[in-house]
Amino acid sequence: MGRLNGKVAIITGAGSGFGAGIAKRFAEEGAKVVLADINLKRANGIAGAIGDTAIAVQADVSRKEDIDGLVASAMDRFGRIDIMVNNAGFTHRNMPLTEVSEDNFDLIFAVNMKALYFSALAVVPIMEGQGGGSIINTASTTALRPREGLAWYNASKGWVLSATKSMALELAAKNIRANCLCPVEGDTEMLKLFLEEDTPERRTALKESIPLGRFSTPLDIANAALWLASDEASFVTGTALEVDGGYSV
């Protein structure tokens, strides 16, 4: 028996990186998975590798109509939604806070923050009707220990942490758990944006700031998400799980 047998999960930003890792790990544990990504080709590739228990949906999480369409696709194909993983994220390049453009600031707000609002509007009534569910939001260690040069990204992830705790408090009576993950940087497409200058020396220095001496991997994050989504964490809500090799200590 898989730890997620009989459950249906939506994962946003599932075409690569942490999201792809979460989708694969959930499927290995018996879940039917809906992979959402703004890049449908990438999501289709991951879904195809998983097999018949996965579908890919193109979605821009900053648009309410796309979130509504994503949820409708999940219900049409699988008939229920047990787990919602709000993983899609965006960052500005490492730079002084006064140099971040308004367009980039607005995109951070839309993808990292407003998407959680749209998601809650769409899935909470469904989960309530089913008797419960699990919402997992990807925050960041920068919500707890900000990195210089990422001011507005740091702030958006702090918002995710606060929103998650607020959701947990309000949704507990509906048997809907809400938790967030706080990963340290991984060797993914976004890593170069966290660095003021993407050089081997800068990458080494960033890695050395992590006590366990390496970047996070999609599997690290996926295993943490799996536990939060499973019945093993049925009494866990409102937590920010640090998956960071000791960085936040």
TrEMBL record:
Pfam families the UniProt entry points to: adh_short_C2
EC number: 1.1.1.100
Keywords carried by this UniProt record: Oxidoreductase
Any one GO molecular-function label of the UniProt entry: 3-oxoacyl-[acyl-carrier-protein] reductase (NADPH) activity
Keyword Nucleotidyltransferase: no
Keyword Oxidoreductase: yes
EC category: oxidoreductase
Membership in a protein family: Belongs to the short-chain dehydrogenases/reductases (SDR) family.
The name this protein goes by in its record: 3-ketoacyl-ACP reductase
Gene coding for it: fabG
